[in-house]
Design brief:
Layout (H helix, E strand, L loop, with lengths): L1 E4 L16 H11 L6 E3 L8 E8 L1 H12 L4 E9 L6 E4 L10 E8 L3 E8 L6 H8 L18 E2 L5 E9 L6 E5 L4 H7 L4 E2 L1 H6 L1
Parallel strand pairs: 3-9
Antiparallel strand pairs: 1-3, 2-3, 4-7, 4-9, 5-6, 6-7, 8-11, 9-10
């Protein structure tokens, strides 16, 4: 199964053992529907990121799918809104995260006066990789309150503007080539239409 996760929802519980997670919600629905299996996540998105998450129907299939991720055979694409203008319209960020190799490719999709719409292609899967990498190059993701202070943003967003929009992978059982896509969530679509708040004095400095 591939599920479109909303922003603000955990995939699995943290050590605080939250009950309201995507995995718990899915399995409660499967239980009520008398499904003969449980859903097991094959990868994760952080709480504030929305978009596509692959679930396996059983532990054996989960392991096979997780092996695909570890071998970097699953192609992932995100859409992000970042502050300011990028130094280059496309590139690759290779800064290690917690001492481990981390690689993020990106390309500019659309330029706005105070922010940029980009497509992001993480080649590794470090925790918060995309958020950390774009903060490091001086273009933090709009709405990020974990790695950036609110006062540092010139554009105000109602959510973290990071969405997992496409997955391409080989089905671990059938061998079928699968591509799944998800459209931007409503709040991000509203920003694309121009419904955002920019302080005039900040725009004048750009």
């Amino acid at each position: 199964m591939v599920v479109d996760k909303p922003s603000g929802l955990l995939v699995i519980p943290t050590p605080k053992n939250e009950a309201n997670t995507l995995t718990n919600i899915l399995n409660e629905g499967l239980k009520q529907g008398h499904a003969p299996y449980r859903a097991h996540p094959c990868h994760r998105l952080d709480r504030d990121t929305s978009g596509l998450v692959i679930y396996a129907k059983g532990k054996a299939t989960q392991k096979k799918m997780m092996d695909e991720f570890k071998a970097q055979r699953v192609k992932k694409a995100y859409v992000a809104f970042v502050q300011g203008r990028l130094a280059r319209p496309h590139g690759e960020i290779r800064t290690p995260i917690e001492g481990k190799t981390a690689v993020t490719r990106y390309r500019l999709a659309e330029q706005r006066p105070a922010w940029s719409v980009i497509e992001v292609f993480p080649l590794t899967g470090r925790t918060n990789q995309i958020r950390v990498h774009f903060r490091q190059i001086g273009n933090p993701i709009l709405g990020d309150t974990r790695f950036v202070f609110r006062r540092h943003f010139t554009v105000k967003a109602k959510r973290l503007c990071l969405h997992a929009t496409r997955l391409e992978f080989t089905h671990p059982i059938t061998g079928e080539e699968i591509t799944v896509e998800s459209e931007l969530p409503e709040k991000m679509r509203d920003m694309m239409k121009g419904a955002f708040d920019v302080r005039r004095q900040d725009l004048e400095r750009l």
